[in-house]
Amino acid sequence: MPTPRSPHRAVRGLLALSLAAGGLLAAGGSPAVASPGSGPTAVVSMGDSYISGEAGRWQGNSLTNTGSRDGTDRAWTGSTYDPSRVYGTTAANGCHRSDSAEVRSAGAIASALINIACSGATTRNVFRAASGGVAYKGEAPQADQLASIAASHDVETIVLSIGGNDLGFADIIRTCATDYIVWYSYCHDDQQVEVDAKIDGVMGDVGKSVDEIRAVMSGAGYAPSDYRIVLQSYPSPIPRGADNRYAESGWARTNTGGCPFWNLDSDWARDSLVPQISSRLKRVATAKGAQFLDLRDMLQGREVCAKASKQVSPTVPASATSSEWTRWIDSNETQGPVQESVHPNHYGQLALGRCLALIHARPSGDFGCRNTAGTGASGMYLTALS
Question: In 3-state terms, what secondary structure has residue 228?
Fold first, then answer.
């Protein structure tokens, strides 16, 4: 648990009272009078789609396009599809904060589990407006949202996933899929050049995101020892070529599996791109005094088209122990919006929540989180990083 907060309670209490006296109001029009040191404990998730809960609508992938899609579509009402059953009000603006998002699936690790991440967000959507931050999808910059939370809650942990959209991860996936389907060519060579050209600047902006969070917390009266920042990396949504259950040639990877990638491109994504991003994010975390949660292996064997997992069908029910934990690519949008593609699905998010709970219980150190074959979220475990 974080170190005792008693030396700072009075400072934060006075700050909260001064904010209230200055006329700042909390939601509903009531003064924000709760002291962060004595208010409800909170864990806050910030950043992009890999932590907002994108694709939480789905529990496995099925080729059936009607009804509940063999039980995979959690938005099915029995007569129609209602994404707000999963994403709540953010089904409308596309932030897609699902009911199974990482912080929501972590269990009773704090009194309040608050998700302000938004699908598609970049680092500039995290920065405070005063530092160049930009509103996104009708919502204020996330650091500015955090300021209100820090003034009314006792924030213990802030977990951040950011940088993937700055690097153009969605564009990389799109390019690689197009090269497989249309051009019959590889993508990894030219895409690696693009990543290398961007990554230094992106990591600088990730570091600034951490600085912005610290500035907000300091402004709310928190000392660095009062809370933790956990910076997490990204899992590979596709398996290595040798671990793909569909032949490399033909249309099965496109029309059946939803994983249209060449083996060499898959190997590059799994063994070069994802580790490169993870290693650079770890360096940022170390430099900024944050904990690091490495998720590169989190979906191993549970990726879309992985041999170790199964597609759901009328005879193969959805299952956290055997179904894919990653949403496939649905470029025709026959089952929901394409933005849900290649994200951890409902099962994957339950697993991510377990990872968060595990690292929340470890007040120091950097860890990787992995799954245990044949189990659900309960089989997730941490490995210490050197």
Answer: strand
